[in-house]
Amino acid sequence: MLIKRSAASWIVLLILFSAILGGCGGSGQSQQVKIGEVTRSIFYAPQYVALEKGFFQEEGLDVELQTTAGGDKTMTALLSGAIDVALVGAETSIYVYQQGAEDPVINFAQLTQTDGTFLVSREELPGFDWSQLRGAVFLGQRKGGMPQMAGEFTLRKHGIDPHQDLELIQNIDFANITAAYASGTGQFVQLFEPQASILEREGKGHVIASFGAESGRLPYTVFMTKQSYMQKHDQTVQKFTNAIRRAQAWVQEHSPAETARVISPYFKDTDLDIIESSVKRYLEQGSYAETPEFNEQSWNNLLDVMEGAGELKERVPFDKLVDNKYAQFAIKSLPVP
Predict the structure, then answer these.
(1) Contact of 93 with 107, CB cutoff 8 Å
(2) Which of 158, 181, 184, 282 could form a disulfide with 189 if both were Cys (CB 3.0 to 4.6 A apart)?
(3) H or E, element range at 296
């Protein structure tokens, strides 16, 4: 009888011990986060630095990155739960809000703060003036997307009506614009890096102006998630923002050559010198946000750009779709010398 009780006691102890070990193992596991980026671009260098330097891992996050080409596809993936966090233009959160979403999409960390596209011409145009675009065939970006709206904003600033003064092509899928231009479509095109520099290298185009330098500060590309995810995974969002903050500081503190080497695995078909020159170009025009915190003035600039493009039903208050608490905590708790 004593032996039976002893055996039973041992079984109970083993079960309890196993449960304790299982609990400890669970708490030490990384939290998985799926990111969908709207495109693969050197414009997003700090994100790749955060991945390659292990900043996400050090925060206890297991981050899986996928490219969901185009703002519409990226937002569909986020709303359906296929991804947890989207890296896309802030305008997409406004579109969701305008549709009366019960579970709005909230912007929580800014990655870039200017337009990241450049005006590319087939011909070298020394002393270029924007009036030279009048009557030209212009290969633009998707209607309602941030690149196209910021591009139109810049054109109007220079007295050009994009729908009256240009032969504007907008029916080519985002992922195929570079190939379409390289094959002969259009006299001018609006491109991100490294595509712009690659066309220059191949002798198929010349970078003659920067839309980022012309259109001012914007919450151009940001990390966002559904409000329900944010409420359920508050600490995950904070850890994610901490990692981005560290990566942004790293990019600012290191040379374009060092950044190029770190992010090169994400651009295996691009020469290292092209990556470096692209990073340098973005740094010089202040495209990379220095911190993840949003600025209300740049938000209002975004609303102006959308309004000018006829894509804004009503002006959305800054604090309705932006939550700065994660960025502010990251800045305070991770000071950068």
Answers:
(1) yes
(2) 181
(3) helix 296-308
- Mean pLDDT of all residues belonging to the chain: 90
Share of the chain above pLDDT 90, in %: 82
Q: What's the CA gap between 282 and 289, in Å, rounded?
A: 10
How far apart CA 18 and CA 74 sit, in angstroms, is 42
Contact 211, 150 (CB under 8 A): yes
CATH for the 31-114+218-333 domain, from 3.20.10.10, 2.60.40.1180, 3.30.110.10, 3.40.190.10: 3.40.190.10
**In the chain, where the domains are located:** 31-114+218-333, 118-215
Q: Considering the entire predicted model, what is its pTM?
A: 0.86
Looking at residue 10, its pLDDT comes to 36
**Closest-CA residue to 35 (of 22, 48, 25):** 48
Please give the CATH architecture assigned to the domain spanning 118-215: 3-Layer(aba) Sandwich (3.40)
**Rounded Cα distance, 240 and 56, in Å:** 7
CA–CA distances in Å: residue 101 to residues 49, 98, 195 = 33, 8, 35
Can 31-114+218-333 and 118-215 be said to share one CATH topology? Answer: yes
Give the whole-angstrom CA distance, residue 150 versus residue 115: 7
Chain centroid to Cα 80, Å, comes to 19
Largest Cα span, the chain = 100
Supply 332's token pair.
């305070």
C-beta pairs of 74-80 under 8 Å, 24+ apart in sequence: 74/36, 74/37, 74/38, 75/105, 77/36, 78/36, 78/105, 78/224, 78/225, 78/226, 79/105, 79/226
Burial class (CB in 10 A: 0-12, 13-18, 19+), 171: exposed
Prior bond of 194 cis (ω within 30°): yes
Burial zone of 163 (CB within 10 Å; 0-12 exposed, 13-18 middle, 19+ buried): exposed
